[in-house]
Amino acid sequence: MNKEIPNIVTQIFKDPDPVIWSGFWLSTLKKLLNSKKLIVMWNQLLIQIKENHRYNKQLSLNKYIKWELKAFVASVIKASESNTNETLFKDALRDYMMIKGLKLDERIIRTILKEINDH
Questions:
Q1: Is residue 1 part of a domain?
Q2: Collapsing DSSP states into helix, strand and coil, what is residue 62?
Q3: CA count, 13 A, side-chain hemisphere, 23
Q4: I need a labelling partner for 28 at 20 to 30 A (CA). Which of 35, 62, 76, 80 fits?
Q5: Is the residue at 66 inside a domain?
Q6: What is the spatial distance between Cα 25 and Cα 71, in angstroms, rounded to a whole number?
Q7: What is the pLDDT of residues 25-80, one digit of tens each?
Q8: Is pLDDT above 70 for 83?
Q9: Residue 71 near residue 100, CB atoms below 8 Å
């Protein structure tokens, strides 16, 4: 795991549940966590998730971050499994992020796809 990603991300994903995180899901998670090019993504997601927490106070901030980061990674995996085409991947991820109130630069979305497909 990349030591430069935020500590909370490291804590959330340090011991992934093997029932969920195996095979393609686990390999994709590792690519996202190991990429130096995606440190910006993790930082941007954390800022936005913390801001969005004010609309969802049922969970503590830490539980909300954990829930949202795992959901984001799952959406990346689902988008990449079903959409090998870059445009379809970007559309699927953008649709998910719009529902969740998240926004990532087009360049970061392309980097996500490149990182999970190139390794």
A1: no
A2: helix
A3: 5
A4: 62
A5: yes
A6: 12
A7: 999 999 999 999 999 999 999 999 999 999 888 999 999 999 999 999 999 999 99
A8: no
A9: yes
